[in-house]
Amino acid sequence: MSNVLITKFPVTAPDGTEYRVTVCEGYTPLFGRDAAVTLEIPVKRRKFKHVYSKTFRGIVDYDTSDPDYIELASRTLVEHLESVRKKAEAVASRQAAVERFNAWDGRVSGL
């Protein structure tokens, strides 16, 4: 198997946001020869990256003889979107806590 370097733009998320996805398959010192697929999705000024491996601690993420790059790219994009959603929820929760504190009359009850 030879090394693979492919890019797709646009890859469109359900909300319509377009991403560039790069799949790089080949030798890595950690995973061995032709055993890893790295997907990179540029997000603002950084890259969201996920490494899929043939075998890593007994886990098989993909079939090296017949890889499904579409499924790997889709899975990586969904993982990124879930991460963004969780961060947004955390920010909203903290903001709600600040608003509750500001609205509090300062009285302590039940002591």
Q: Beta fraction of the residues?
A: 35-45%
Uncertain segments are none
Overall pLDDT, averaged? 80
Helix content: 25-40%
| Main sheet: strands, sense, barrel | 4 strands, antiparallel
Radius of gyration: 21 Å
User: Helix-strand pattern, N to C?
Assistant: EEEEH
Count of helical stretches:
1
Regarding quaternary structure, what we see is single chain
Strand order of the largest sheet: 1-2-3-4
Between the first and last Cα atoms, what is the distance in angstroms? Answer: 70 Å
Which structural class do you get from the secondary structure elements?
Answer: alpha+beta
Number of β-strand runs:
4
Walk me through this protein's architecture:
- The protein is an alpha+beta fold and 111 residues long.
- Helices cover 32% and strands 36% of the residues.
- The chain has 1 helix and 4 strands.
- It has a 4-stranded antiparallel sheet, covered by helices on one side.
- The longest helix is centred in the last third of the chain and has 35 residues.
- It is elongated and about 70 Å long.
- The chain starts with a strand and ends in an 8-residue tail after the last helix.
- The mean pLDDT is 80.
